[in-house]
Design a protein that fits this description.
alpha+beta; seven-stranded mixed β-sheet; 16 strands; elongated
């Protein structure tokens, strides 16, 4: 894709926004996408903000490829007084949609970057959005820019509330620019690494190590599938921290899934850590249903968490 053929349009006038919205509506081709136009509720502090079809965006952005509209997104700004009478500034992006005939060419990602850059240039103290629990494509896309999960928004909406900090975003944007091909190849490799030997019994052996660490080995007959090291603190009996793992490359995804399902079925919440630049590990963890919940710039560390209640949403083998 030639970047010189791509341009961005910023729409602030109401009539222009309506025209762009009417065009984007024609791109909706699934029930999930239809939800984008029927309205969502965003929870923030003690406020419920209605994000409905008739709400006028602060700005609308359209990406053009060779002068043809290819992607659409809205940026909304809410201002209200909280209990201390100070004004809260709350920025939400949403309704990202691509022209069906121009999908899978990276246009959505380019438009997202433009939207984020624009919002922070306008002074947004943070960016918020939501994503469906089982929308793994959106999870990987947003997490590669540094979004963290704040929690499940609504049982009815089955969605997570996510947040992007302006101090975090430049670090992740730089990594994404340098390693976008690695993100893409990691996703593809995960799709091809999900097959275990058919009709074979997997055995699990646990060994106590020093300082409270445990080692688990998964084997089929005499063949070792993977080795995990984790720790469980007495003060947190319902949580285990996965410290490291060594797995046969062609069995990576399914072996990790097997171990994680065992932990979650025992009611354990699984925690794990990664550095910013460890692209493959970050993609693998998001593929397994983990959520980015904390980012520490000083330690160059991302904290991931998988709640046992979300095990049902892990993609099947």
């Amino acid at each position: 894709m030639n970047s010189e053929t791509v341009s961005f349009t910023i729409l602030c006038a109401l009539e222009e926004q309506k025209q762009a919205l009417n065009l984007a509506r024609t791109w909706v081709d699934s029930q999930d996408e239809f939800l984008l136009w029927t309205g969502d509720d965003f929870l923030f502090l003690d406020k419920t903000l209605e994000f409905k079809q008739g709400l006028v965006p602060h700005e609308t952005y359209v990406l053009l490829s060779q002068h043809i509209p290819a992607a659409y997104i809205e940026l909304h700004r809410f201002q209200f007084k909280n209990n201390s009478s100070t004004i809260s500034d709350y920025w939400v992006f949403g309704r990202l949609l691509c022209n069906p005939v121009l999908r899978r060419q990276g246009f959505a990602k380019q438009l997202i970057k433009f939207c984020f850059d624009r919002a922070f240039a306008l002074g947004a103290p943070a960016l918020f959005a939501h994503r469906e629990i089982n929308n793994y494509v959106a999870q990987r896309l947003y997490e590669c820019f540094g979004f963290i999960t704040l929690g499940q928004q609504s049982q009815l909406r089955n969605a997570f509330h996510i947040k992007l900090d302006p101090l975090i975003y430049p670090h992740f944007k730089q990594i994404d620019n340098q390693h976008s091909e690695r993100w893409r190849s990691a996703r593809l490799s995960l799709r091809s690494n999900t097959t275990l030997p058919a009709q074979q019994t997997i055995t699990q052996e646990t060994t106590q190590l020093k300082n409270g660490y445990m080692e688990v080995q998964l084997t089929v007959n005499t063949f070792t599938l993977g080795r995990f090291v984790f720790i469980q603190k007495e003060s947190q009996p319902d949580r285990v921290t996965l410290v490291s793992w060594e797995i046969q490359p062609h069995l990576l995804s399914c072996t990790l899934k097997k171990w994680i399902r065992t932990m979650c079925n025992n009611g354990k919440t699984v925690m794990c850590f990664s550095s910013f630049a460890d692209i493959e590990k970050r993609v693998e963890l998001s593929f397994l249903g983990f959520q980015q919940i904390r980012i520490d710039l000083n330690k160059n560390q991302i904290t991931f968490l998988l709640d046992p209640q979300l095990i049902q949403y892990i993609e099947p083998d």
